[in-house]
Amino acid sequence: MTSLVLGIVAFVLAFIPAINTVGAFVALVGLVLGVVAIFQKRASKPLAISGSAISFVAGVLSIIMIVVYAAAFVTAVNDSISKPVTSSAPSAPASAAASDAASAAPAASTNYSFGDTVTYKDGLAITVSAPTPYTPSDSAAGADQAANIQFTITLKNGTTKNYDPLLYPTVSSNGTEASSITDIGNKVGLAPTTAVPAGQSITFVTAFSVADPSKLVLDISPGFGYDEAVFQN
pLDDT tens, 114-163? Predict the structure, then answer.
């Protein structure tokens, strides 16, 4: 009888966020008591079997709902901080500015032009310059395609806390993955690692070897939990 009651209670608790963890524990206790009762001579076996079955189902259901609620919570948090909400290009004529404002809608599929600034909801902002030719030093590695180019990337920390850089851009050229150039002699290809205080910014240069510099796509994200910003020419 006790096992049956605990199983029913656990079944109800399984649907309540946070409390369903208690429901899983209650279901476990009910299952144990039910199994013990099955082998006792004086216990009602139909009630013991029913209690064990309900407790088992309630336990499995509690675990499933814990995972579902946790996944929903993580998704909601990520969505609240990770969507790019604005993009602004350097000063332009009024008509061009109006066009840029229209293209700066916060749709996840929006692609940005080199020189635009992508601002996330928490205040982080990334600007990627237009590509320029790059001449690697003799110690450079990765300069193995038709053309070598460089980008200047600026991140402004508009949040209220320190930002630990996790910036690793990738580039493709006309459908071909570009090679990242590491050039210690020119201090290029070394991503920043020092924390950026609130209200401050950091700028660094990254270089790539590409097949066709006229058709470039650069992906970059401020870190885990943020959508990638896609820049192209």
Answer: 999 999 988 999 999 999 999 999 989 999 999 999 999 999 999 999 99
71 CB neighbour count, 10 Å cutoff: 10
Q: First CA to last CA across the chain, in angstroms? A: 72
Rounded CA separation 182/189 (Å): 5
Listed in sequence order, the residues at least 6 apart from 68 whose beta carbon sits closer than 8 Å to its beta carbon are none
Tokens 């399984």 sit at which residue? 14
Number of CB atoms found within 10 A of residue 30's CB = 27
Query: Among 49, 45, 46, 55, which Cα is nearest to 8's?
Result: 55
232: Cβ contacts below 8 Å, ≥ 6 apart: 111, 112, 113, 114, 216, 217, 218
Q: What is the pTM of this model?
A: 0.55
- What is the per-residue burial (b if ≥16 Cβ within 10 Å, else e) of 102-136? eebeeeeebebebebbbbbebbbbbbbeebeebeb
